[in-house]
């Protein structure tokens, strides 16, 4: 059994660095939960229930979610609440960059990305507009919420829809 290290201070994570490089401290998609607990604080909350029984788990650090499947990290995610600053909870001290402002529309976010030379590809679904950043992070805007930023996520890399069509 692996015992989590107990930190008496929060881990600092820079959201700009996450968007630009895809790095969230040292976490890597595919990493085991045990190896994460060796060098990252234990979560603020771990929901119990049916998902855990079926091999899925979510660790919560404020608004930050680490999603696991079969004990492997599959996604780093955060859902934004209207007019609320992004929080890392008790053990993750976030430098939120421009996410500190709460409600952000797609045009304000694109302007910030362009100012910092962060390349992206824009894709759309019926319900969302997605900015896929060069780092592998996706920014998701909900059309029903007036194109406001709803969430970000980093998960296992996949080709954009247009690239899959040309590859086949």
Describe the structure.
The protein is an alpha+beta fold and 168 residues long. The chain is 21% helix and 32% strand. The strands form two sheets. It has a seven-stranded antiparallel β-sheet. A hairpin with a 3-residue loop joins strand 7 and strand 8. It is globular.
Describe the structure using short key phrases.
seven-stranded antiparallel sheet; 168 residues; globular; 5 helices; alpha+beta
Instruction: Work out the helix count.
Output: 5
> How many E strands?
9
The proportion of residues in beta strands is: 25-35%
In round numbers, the mean pLDDT is 85
Q: What is the oligomer described by this structure?
A: single chain
The low-confidence parts are none
Summarize the structure in short.
The protein is an alpha+beta fold and 168 residues long.
Topology:
Blueprint: E1 11-14, H1 15-21, H2 33-39, H3 50-53, E2 56-61, E3 64-69, E4 72-79, E5 92-95, H4 106-115, E6 120-124, E7 128-133, E8 137-142, E9 148-155, H5 161-167
Parallel strand pairs: 1-5
Antiparallel strand pairs: 2-3, 3-4, 4-9, 6-7, 7-8, 8-9
């Amino acid at each position: 059994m692996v015992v989590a290290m107990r930190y008496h201070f929060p881990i600092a994570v820079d959201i700009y660095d996450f968007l630009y490089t895809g790095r969230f401290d040292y976490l890597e998609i595919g990493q085991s939960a045990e190896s994460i607990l060796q060098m990252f604080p234990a979560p603020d909350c771990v929901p119990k229930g049916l998902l855990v029984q079926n091999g899925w788990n979510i660790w919560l650090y404020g608004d930050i979610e680490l999603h696991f499947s079969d004990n492997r990290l599959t996604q780093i995610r955060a859902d934004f609440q209207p007019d609320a600053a992004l929080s890392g909870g008790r053990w993750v001290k976030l430098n939120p960059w421009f996410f500190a402002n709460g409600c952000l529309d797609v045009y304000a976010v694109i302007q910030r990305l362009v100012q910092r030379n962060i390349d992206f590809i824009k894709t759309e679904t019926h319900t969302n507009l997605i900015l896929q950043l060069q780092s592998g992070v996706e920014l998701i805007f909900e059309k029903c919420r007036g194109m406001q930023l709803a969430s970000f996520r980093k998960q296992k890399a996949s080709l954009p829809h247009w690239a899959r069509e040309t590859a086949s």
